[in-house]
Amino acid sequence: MNYLGAQMAGFDNLITVTGVRTRSAAVLISVIGEVADFATESKLASYLGIVPRVSNSNKQVHHGRITKGGNKMGRTMKVLVSSRILGNCKTL
Questions:
Q1: DSSP 18
Q2: What Cα–Cα distance (Å) separates residue 84 from each residue in 21, 89, 91?
């Protein structure tokens, strides 16, 4: 898997991010595919299911937990990488 991931476009850039290792980069790239397919970053976040659930009622808007819709593998990798990044962060 690492060998195939290393051949994908964007792999070298992704592993330069602190906390992103070869396997997580390969999984994220294979799940997302072409980033250009997503018009905005919010569309990509929605695809991964990491956007808040929104409830509208007249003039009141409530933002809840993440929707957990979308691609489960991509969302799981994103959460694991995020927790690894926060674990390495010395300023928080």
A1: T
A2: 10, 9, 14
d(CA 69, CA 86): 24
Query: 41 vs 7, 47, 87, CA distance in Å?
Result: 24, 10, 24
Domain regions of the chain by residue span: 2-88
Measure the CA–CA gap between 27 and 32, rounded to whole angstroms: 8
The 10s digit of each residue's pLDDT in 14-51 is: 888 877 888 888 888 888 888 888 899 888 888 877 77
Check: CB of residue 6 under 8 Å from CB of residue 29: no
Residue 14 neighbours by CB distance under 10 Å: 19
Rounded to the nearest angstrom, the gap between the alpha carbon of residue 46 and the centroid of all alpha carbons in its chain is: 10
pTM summary value: 0.63
Nearest to residue 44, comparing CAs of 70, 80, 67, 20? 70
